[in-house]
Amino acid sequence: MNLDLLTGYEKTRLADRQPLPETFLRLPDDEMEIRIAAAKAAMGERLVILGHHYQRDEVIQFADYMGDSLKLAQYAATRREADYVVFCGVHFMAESANVLGAPHQTVLLPDLAAGCSMADMAAIDQLEICWQELRQLGATDVVPVTYINSTAAIKAFCGEHNGVVCTSSNAPAVMAWAWDRAEKLLMLPDQHLGRNTAHRMGVPLDEMVVWDPDQPFGGVNRDALRHARLILWKGHCSVHTRFSVRQMDQFRKAHPTGKVIVHPECTFDVVQAADLCGSTDFIIRTITASPEGSVWAVGTEIHLVNRLARTLAPARTVVTLDGLGCLCSTMFRISPNHLLWTLEGLTDGEIHNPIVVPEPTKTWAKVALDRMLTMA
Fold first, then answer.
1. What is the full per-residue pLDDT of the chain (376 aa) written as tens digits?
2. Distance in angstroms (rounded) separating the CA atoms of residues 149 and 96
3. How far apart are CA 40 and CA 340, in angstroms?
4. What is the spatial distance between Cα 133 and Cα 154, in angstroms, rounded to a whole number?
5. What is the DSSP annotation of 271-287?
6. CA–CA separation, 232 vs 190, rounded Å?
7. N or C: which end of the chain has fewer CB within 10 A?
8. Which residues pair with 277 in a beta bridge?
9. Which of 266, 119, 251, 132 is nearest to 192 (CA)?
10. Which domains are seen in the chain, by residue range?
């Protein structure tokens, strides 16, 4: 079975039918830590473990490198001595590592159910239909831009159609690049990153339309499309859309001198009401460099917020905007148990859950990624 041809939902169902072996369940934490460390040591330089910022602490402690999805994939590619890349993140991140990695490197995802609901909101067949319908509506001068939080198939489509990938950090530069080449920009799969970035660049909201892939012709009016410069795919992050202006008001009442910093995947009203907005790396750098005594409310995933709070205390106070917690539940699927199973499999000569992007998808996805990296 080619796992890379399955949707995120299908991968989840498949993973549910392939549970961890009984011997890897209900293990004491200290035993897992000892065994993970031993397996990692046994593999030596042939192994590199990558940990995303949103990963749980019990797993991130074993990462050789921690960062966002693109930086992790790039780092793995520089570790030419590593034959195996264990990606403690989600599926689209492992795909990017496979696309950018060396030919001899095998990328493994400890749990196939670690997907991304945002990436699953843009399926390749939906994009192909969208592209045809845009032309039927008269929009022919369009450049597709996909957020890195997307499947390799979506990246490949952009690569093949003179488009590009972006991150939350470089979205303004990438979108400016696209508008230099076409009248309109199709931004997917996260509408909020596109809207917030374009508005910051001076594009009025009435020059943006939302394309709903579940509606004929995206549910977009022909006249509105003709006037639009930005076509936003109807997708979102289930974590970052949890934050609200009401939560900010509550924080500011409790901490009048405190600052609110949020990720651009948050909704437009939240970004407008925040003191600062930027990528995960921007959030980390800003809070870390802030004066002692600073108080921050952060609108992003809870594991990153808690890690900042712990490492910067007591000099700075860092809290989450969402008091109930904002967990990336699919990232949380990567557990120490899964990591142990993956690593001990390698020491026994077994490869669990390799992520292989098929051709020509891999080649075209790399084209889109390389275009972005060339801008940097």
1. 344 444 443 444 444 445 788 889 889 999 999 999 999 999 999 999 999 999 999 999 999 999 888 888 888 888 889 999 999 999 999 999 999 999 999 999 999 999 999 999 999 999 999 999 999 999 999 999 999 999 999 999 999 999 999 999 999 999 999 999 999 999 999 999 999 999 999 999 999 999 999 999 999 999 999 999 999 999 999 999 999 999 999 999 999 999 999 999 999 999 999 999 999 999 999 999 999 999 999 999 999 999 999 999 999 999 999 977 778 888 889 999 999 999 999 999 999 999 999 999 999 999 999 999 988 6
2. 10
3. 9
4. 17
5. HHHSSEE--HHHHHHHH
6. 8
7. N
8. 262
9. 266
10. 3-115+330-357 (3.40.50.10800), 119-237 (3.40.50.10800), 240-320 (3.40.50.10800)
Cis peptide upstream of residue 110 (ω within 30 degrees of 0): no
The answer to whether the CB of 243 falls within 8 A of the CB of 270 is yes
For residue 257, which amino acid is it?
T
DSSP-H helix ranges across the chain: 8-17, 29-43, 57-60, 69-78, 91-100, 124-136, 152-160, 171-179, 191-200, 222-227, 245-254, 268-273, 280-288, 302-312, 336-347, 361-375
In the numeric block, which tokens belong to residue 70? 């693109």
2: left (phi over 0), alpha (psi -120 to 50) or beta: beta
Rg (CA), the chain: 21
